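User: Continuing from earlier, I have the next pair ready.

Assistant: Great, send them over.

User: Here they are, in order.

Assistant: Folding the first of the pair now:
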Amino acid sequence: MIDSRIVITGIGLTAPNGDTLPEFRRNLLAGVAGIENIETRYVGTVHAGVCHFDPLRHQKKKALRIGTRAGSVAIYCSREAVADSGVDWDGVEKDRVGVYLGVTEHGNVETENEIYNISQFDYDTRYWTHHHNPRTVANNPAGEVTINMGISGPHYTIGAACAAGNAGLIQALQMLRLGEVDFALAGGVSESIHTFGIFAAFKSQGALAKHEDPARASRPFDRDRNGIVVSEGGCVYTVERLEDAIARGAKIYGEIVGYGLNSDARDYVLPHSGGQAACMRLALKRAGLSPRDIDLVNTHATATPLGDEQECIALREVFADCPETHVNNTKGFIGHAMGAAGALELAGNLPSFDDGKIHHCLNVEHLDPKCEVPNLVLNEPLENKRVDVILNNSFGMLGINSVLIVRRYVD
């Protein structure tokens, strides 16, 4: 099975500007952002990407009280992905299903809330909830999915900072090829906006976006960008071996043909173009492709000055002579969904295989000269462009890099 072709057959997502792939895609092409102002404990008013899915669609109220926001996001996306895949879920052997979800962090929300709650009772720990431990263990979001859906195969979350969404899909591919599972739910989830700590830390770092209009606050590549808009969200894919997908007549969104994971090994926070370029080249090598074979690169760029510059250096190096390779970015629409970012951003671009459109970068009013790359799609979507291969970048703190390459499915 080591050489099995691996395909995507279902997509379930919730983003700040859409709770289904068609809605998400429409809003990307229409230039509709999903950023709003929220009030955060101790920090005050902040810009954030907030999801508006209905958690009761797939959970009971009791489960919501016991579980976590990340778990709810994961359950919603997983259930929607299975429905989208058309698989006969009742007939699937649940011990042969794996759940692999990328996360940036997990447990901060619950810990902060419990500390705040007992502070109202003079820090008497008798008021500390007995649900705290299962809520905060690292495997929680994936574990909540298995309980909700009756899955008895392996589950775990993958802590890969903001590279985690791609990493979840890479893990699924590897486990399918190893024969450990026959069907996988994979992607990434984030509940980050519910912890004040992430806002406070980015603010202290000088990396939290600020703009009078929240919809314009997330502005990767723009000369006046001033930081990250923190968002929640999730995207889960059903992933299968090609022969299994064909046998059941599944629709196929695309084939995962290459991937890369590596580390900068340099800094806790600062990215490095050399490591990013190496990761893209590793993914291309595994896919057996040249840079010229890539039709679309979806960038990771988060709207931090140095981060965007470093990625653009890497892009100019890898795609130096690629006149047909176009480049876009999704975070201007939805902010930075952390562990869900890579999975969500890939999903927003996969419809390019069918509709021949590439969504643009939002909020680039004055392109930073340091962020100039050939064929950067600005101002409006690119129409009538055949897209056969997409390269998806996701990079994270502590220097972890992930790249995923998905190709239009052909026999």
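And the other member of the pair:
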Amino acid sequence: MAKKFKDMSIGQRIFRIAAGYEIAVACLSLLFLLTFFGTIEQRWFGLWTTIHKYFDYNSVWVQPMNADQKLIFFPLPGAYWVIVVLSINMFLGGIVRARKGWRKAGVLVSHFAILFMLVAGAVSSLYKEEGNMRVLQGEKSDYAQKLFKHDIEVFAYDEEGDREEPAIVRSKYIKDLGRKDKLEATFEKFDFKLEVDKYLPYSELALDSPTSRPPKGEEVVDGFFLVEVEKDVKTEERNIPGCYVSIRDEDDELIQRLVLWAGNPYPVTFNYEGKRYGVTYLMEIWPMPFEVELHKTFGENHPGTEIPRWFQSDITKVDGDDRADYKIVMNEPARHGGYTLYQAGFTRAAEGETPSSTFAVVNNPSDKWPEYALWASAAGLLFHFLTMLFRFIDGSSRSGRKPNSAAALPPKIPTS
């Protein structure tokens, strides 16, 4: 007989609570609420913002809001950490505490599969990389650009005017800055240092003119200045950061003051000791281990709109001496070497211009894990149901058997 809770030791009580149905029900209820409010907020704040708010591992607590950013429910724990608790609960209750034996093998396999699916989600959240690759028809590309990550690249020009290998200041260091903070970066290959300040995560680049004057106290560099704007909550791609940069020599003397805006695709240049240098602030370059050659891109929009209804790209993926042809259609991606290419968009070119395709590139180590987990769970449940069916049939046949002749005879009455 199982012990009553009051008769358990402290360790047994902790295990009983951690593996109990109460925590499972609470976690599933919280996930329902988080999914419900996240679905509502997506309408106002966009898909990317909502997913990161509710499901990112950095979100310990979540506050559901309406379109006016007013609370509509009490704060809830982030979905990532709710799933962590649910995974622990399932492991302890559904595997460690569960009855073992061949009759329960199907249930155990199903529990393992569900747990594996939850782990796949955590791996995806931590290690998935994604970006966009734009390729012109008839040309090829071997890199993508990571979304929402902007690096500062500093490079020199050689005698022919070509860019040399750049030194990079990664976005993760720049994003930690505020308007009043500074970041100093030094480089082994250069005799100067770079100082980043006045970082604005949401900005526009403006020209100082009679019709566009800078706010009071705002710095103007070479006739340009940054304007802080409201965050675009529906389309994250429209939120463009900017900052100011000082180039200083080893004695901390100012060489050049620059204004950088991530929406400007051209480098800002300066001269130092007879050599020309450039600085860019663009989306992080993500080199691919293969090339994508676009042969043809075509598609259709919904009537009367610019919203794509269907589009396709015919490509060749070149990996060393290996060449493979793919047709990428909406919801039918191409997979190669751990990378997945989705058709994200296409551009119809005007006369004399070249059409292009944009591919969403994803490198997710757990990309196929949910599929494997579903097959394993289905196999486990099928085995369990068949086992129960055979037991039921066997029990029914036993209960329906006629008694044998010996058992049907009346008992003998002893005589004296």
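Worth noting for the second one:
Residues 369-399 form the longest helix (31 residues). The chain has a mean pLDDT of 87.
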